[in-house]
Specification:
Layout (H helix, E strand, L loop, with lengths): L3 E4 L1 H10 L2 E7 L6 H13 L6 E6 L4 H6 L7 E6 L2 E7 L4 H12 L1
Length: 107
Protein backbone atom coordinates (compact mmCIF):
# COMPACT_ATOMS: atom_id res chain seq x y z
CA UNK A 1 0.00 0.00 0.00
CA UNK A 2 1.34 3.42 -0.97
CA UNK A 3 0.95 6.42 1.29
CA UNK A 4 0.03 9.95 0.33
CA UNK A 5 2.57 12.60 1.31
CA UNK A 6 1.58 16.27 1.56
CA UNK A 7 4.49 18.24 0.09
CA UNK A 8 5.56 21.88 -0.29
CA UNK A 9 8.20 23.65 -2.39
CA UNK A 10 10.81 22.66 0.19
CA UNK A 11 10.04 18.93 0.08
CA UNK A 12 8.70 18.31 -3.43
CA UNK A 13 11.96 17.41 -5.21
CA UNK A 14 13.08 15.06 -2.46
CA UNK A 15 9.78 13.15 -2.48
CA UNK A 16 9.38 13.18 -6.27
CA UNK A 17 12.82 11.68 -6.85
CA UNK A 18 12.97 9.37 -3.83
CA UNK A 19 11.32 6.40 -5.53
CA UNK A 20 11.92 7.51 -9.10
CA UNK A 21 8.21 7.39 -9.92
CA UNK A 22 5.46 9.57 -8.48
CA UNK A 23 1.94 10.81 -9.05
CA UNK A 24 1.76 14.45 -8.03
CA UNK A 25 -1.74 15.79 -7.36
CA UNK A 26 -1.98 19.59 -7.50
CA UNK A 27 -5.11 20.99 -5.87
CA UNK A 28 -6.54 24.21 -4.49
CA UNK A 29 -8.41 24.76 -1.25
CA UNK A 30 -11.15 26.66 -3.07
CA UNK A 31 -11.53 24.15 -5.91
CA UNK A 32 -15.08 22.73 -5.93
CA UNK A 33 -14.21 19.40 -7.58
CA UNK A 34 -10.94 18.79 -5.74
CA UNK A 35 -12.51 16.95 -2.74
CA UNK A 36 -13.86 14.24 -5.06
CA UNK A 37 -10.53 13.92 -6.85
CA UNK A 38 -8.74 13.85 -3.48
CA UNK A 39 -10.91 10.93 -2.35
CA UNK A 40 -10.17 9.00 -5.56
CA UNK A 41 -6.45 9.81 -5.32
CA UNK A 42 -6.23 8.58 -1.73
CA UNK A 43 -8.24 5.43 -2.52
CA UNK A 44 -6.02 4.51 -5.46
CA UNK A 45 -2.92 5.19 -3.33
CA UNK A 46 -4.23 2.73 -0.76
CA UNK A 47 -4.63 0.07 -3.43
CA UNK A 48 -1.23 0.60 -5.09
CA UNK A 49 2.14 -0.94 -4.28
CA UNK A 50 5.08 0.93 -2.80
CA UNK A 51 6.86 1.36 -6.15
CA UNK A 52 4.96 4.63 -6.76
CA UNK A 53 4.88 7.73 -4.54
CA UNK A 54 1.65 9.70 -4.17
CA UNK A 55 2.19 13.41 -3.56
CA UNK A 56 -0.46 15.99 -2.68
CA UNK A 57 0.55 19.53 -3.56
CA UNK A 58 -1.53 22.50 -2.46
CA UNK A 59 -0.84 25.21 -5.03
CA UNK A 60 -0.84 27.85 -2.29
CA UNK A 61 1.92 26.03 -0.37
CA UNK A 62 4.02 25.20 -3.42
CA UNK A 63 3.92 28.22 -5.69
CA UNK A 64 7.40 27.66 -7.16
CA UNK A 65 6.70 23.98 -7.93
CA UNK A 66 3.34 24.96 -9.43
CA UNK A 67 5.09 27.47 -11.72
CA UNK A 68 7.90 25.07 -12.64
CA UNK A 69 5.45 22.42 -13.82
CA UNK A 70 3.18 25.04 -15.43
CA UNK A 71 0.07 24.07 -13.52
CA UNK A 72 -2.61 26.32 -15.02
CA UNK A 73 -5.69 24.74 -13.46
CA UNK A 74 -6.65 22.40 -10.66
CA UNK A 75 -7.02 19.61 -10.12
CA UNK A 76 -4.00 18.45 -12.12
CA UNK A 77 -2.18 15.15 -11.72
CA UNK A 78 1.29 14.59 -13.10
CA UNK A 79 2.98 11.26 -13.62
CA UNK A 80 6.67 11.86 -12.90
CA UNK A 81 9.77 9.77 -13.50
CA UNK A 82 12.83 11.08 -11.63
CA UNK A 83 11.07 14.45 -11.34
CA UNK A 84 10.36 14.71 -15.09
CA UNK A 85 6.80 14.86 -16.39
CA UNK A 86 5.67 11.76 -18.30
CA UNK A 87 1.93 12.38 -18.43
CA UNK A 88 -0.65 14.95 -17.25
CA UNK A 89 -4.37 14.94 -16.47
CA UNK A 90 -6.42 18.02 -15.60
CA UNK A 91 -10.02 18.48 -14.53
CA UNK A 92 -12.57 16.07 -13.07
CA UNK A 93 -10.24 13.07 -12.86
CA UNK A 94 -11.97 9.78 -12.10
CA UNK A 95 -10.70 6.86 -10.08
CA UNK A 96 -10.48 4.76 -13.26
CA UNK A 97 -8.27 7.40 -14.88
CA UNK A 98 -5.90 7.31 -11.90
CA UNK A 99 -5.75 3.52 -12.00
CA UNK A 100 -4.84 3.82 -15.68
CA UNK A 101 -1.89 6.04 -14.77
CA UNK A 102 -0.68 3.58 -12.14
CA UNK A 103 -0.89 0.79 -14.72
CA UNK A 104 1.16 2.93 -17.11
CA UNK A 105 3.88 3.09 -14.46
CA UNK A 106 4.09 -0.65 -13.92
CA UNK A 107 4.67 -1.41 -17.62
Amino acid sequence: MAYVSEVTDQSFDEFARESGRALAYFYGTDCPICPKVTAAFEKVAGETGDDLRFLKVCILDARETTRRYRILGVPTILLLEDGKEISRMTGAIREEDLKGLTTKVSH
